[in-house]
Amino acid sequence: MSTLPSGVAPERTIGPFQLLALGVNGIVGVGIFFAPAEVAAQAPGLGAVWAFALTGLALVPVAFAFAVLGRRFDSDGGPVVFARAAFGERVSFLVGWVAYVSAFLSTSAVMAGLARAVAPSVGLGGPVGERLLASALVTGLAALVASGIRVSARTWTALTVLKLVPLAVLLGAFFFLPDRDVPPPLPATGASWLKAGLTVMFAYQGFEIVPVIAGQVRASERTVPMATVGSLLLAMLLYVGLVWACVAALPDLASASAPLAQAAGVWSGAGMERLVGAGTSVSALGICVGMMVTTPRYLSALASGERSLFGLERMSESGVPMRALAVTWALVLGFVNLGDLSELFALSAIAVLMQFGVTAAALAVLSLRRERNLRPVHALLAVPTLVLGLTLVAFGASAREAAVASVAVLAGLALMRLSRPREPAPVRLP
User: Fold this and answer.
1) Considering its fold, how many domains does the chain have in total?
2) Contact indicator for 334, 112 with CB cutoff of 8 Å
3) Which residues contact 122 (CB under 8 A, 6 or more apart)?
4) What pLDDT, in 10s, does the model give residues 99-115?
5) How many CA within 13 A on the CB side of residue 186?
6) How far apart are CA 74 and CA 179, in angstroms?
7) Where would you tag: which of 24, 115, 155, 410 has the fewest CB atoms within 10 A of its CB?
């Protein structure tokens, strides 16, 4: 597959609905199928519903911060390009590198988990079978992504619809079918609101990936803000309704092993319970597709500034950073064959903090400089974003995550030394 010359953009193929689907797909992952029980352990009864509602509202200013900057940067990278404009190459490179390391480690963990869940049903039980299936999944999804952003967009959009259908049916059964003979929900009680809110905050992650593919989006100045904020608002409405259905159906929600599936069984019977349970795997597959699309773009974005790194920024005619994708495929393939990957989410809190914090700081700096048609009033959006980011790292990140992040930063500094100043583009005479 041929690549475009440096500085030449591919045809933009992503429309509003597909970008909105990417954001919703990023948020509505596997976590929501289990998070209601975890939150109910800290906020019993209707407290769990309020935790999802209030945390979602608290994240709206964060989504607006990403939206305000996203509409002003018409290229792939999201927080990487925001940091480059506000703070220069070094900060941008380190932000992109930590985001990339966290993304490919999380991608490896999700793919390995999906393979482990599906392997017995396809006759590939045992560690060897699980690794073979995980390797085939990684390679197949990499090939799909390599075929072009148009094909990837159709795939993640279809999977997003498929994962939402059983959840929408569950909500319909809860709100519109005749009342079932179930105990009333418990009233809200005293709760560990901070811990509950942190759990919910992780469940809402995903809208921040929307600006990462801005360079492939038609009319990105309108589409990126709509999809960033819209995906969070849609997920918030969905989550509040689902948790409410779980609270009403399961008096002992905190001890439920699969709360959404069990609530579906209460409201619609065993068939619906099996359908929602199967939706967990569909949702995981959708997340895997989205991750394979966006993760290489962090790598290509950090190599697209004033310094070049092994040509990782080169884009194919179909809108794919092929070298960055190849590196990501090799890394994920290696990690899914290591065995237990439950610890590979070690950078997630720190990486989210960096993306939230750098985006907020970049918005404040660029607003005060009045660059990119920003005004000082836009800097106000940075305040809640920074507060949430600091809360996340102070109470949600562990010492182990900080240590892993430090190692990643040191590796990034070493990698940065391998980069070379970009040669100026040749001047074309008329």
Assistant:
1) 1
2) no
3) 133
4) 898 888 888 888 888 88
5) 18
6) 50
7) 410
368: amino acid identity, one letter: L
Structural tokens at position 353: 């903090």
> What is the SS3 assignment for 186?
coil
Q: Which of 187, 313, 301 is nearest to 248 (CA)?
A: 187
Name the percent of the chain lying above pLDDT 90. Answer: 44
Phi-psi label, residue 421: left if phi above 0, alpha if psi -120 to 50, beta otherwise: beta
How high does pLDDT run on average in the chain? 85
Evaluated on CA atoms 71, 349, 241, 275, the torsion sign reads: positive
* Strand boundaries in 152-311, DSSP class E: 307-308
In a domain, residue 173? The reply is yes
Domain span at residue 248?
A: 16-345
Backbone phi and psi for residue 316, each to the nearest 5 degrees, phi listed first: -80, 165
What are φ and ψ of residue 420, in 5° steps?
-130, 145
Q: 145: closest CA among 115, 95, 107, 189? A: 107
Alpha-helix residue ranges (DSSP H) falling in 149-214:
149-176, 193-204
We report the CATH number of the domain holding residue 45 as 1.20.1740.10
The Cα 331–Cα 337 span in angstroms is 10
pTM for the model stands at: 0.89
Name the amino acid, one letter, at 253. L
Rg (Cα) of the chain, in Å, rounded?
Answer: 22
Provide long-range contacts, Cβ within 8 A and 24+ apart, for 113-120: 113/30, 113/284, 113/341, 114/281, 114/284, 114/285, 114/288, 115/336, 117/280, 117/281, 117/284, 118/281
Helix spans in 250-343 (H): 259-268, 270-302, 322-336
Which residues are registered as beta bridge partners of 3? Answer: 316
Q: What is the 3-state secondary structure (H, E, C) of 219-236?
A: CHHHHHHHHHHHHHHHHH
Q: State the Cα–Cα distance between residues 205 and 312, nearest whole angstrom.
A: 27
- Give the span between the Cα atoms of 304 and 285, in whole angstroms: 29
Distance of CA 92 to the CA centre of its chain: 19
Give CA angle at 360 (35, 395), nearest 5°: 40
Is residue 307 classed as helix, strand or coil in its secondary structure? Answer: strand
Q: Is residue 62 part of a domain?
A: yes
User: Is residue 153 in a domain?
Assistant: yes
Residue pLDDT, tens place only, 141-155: 999 999 999 999 999
Domain assignment present for residue 2? The answer is: no
pLDDT by residue (tens digit) across 38-73?
899 888 888 899 999 999 999 999 999 999 999 999
Element (H, E) at 95: helix 89-118
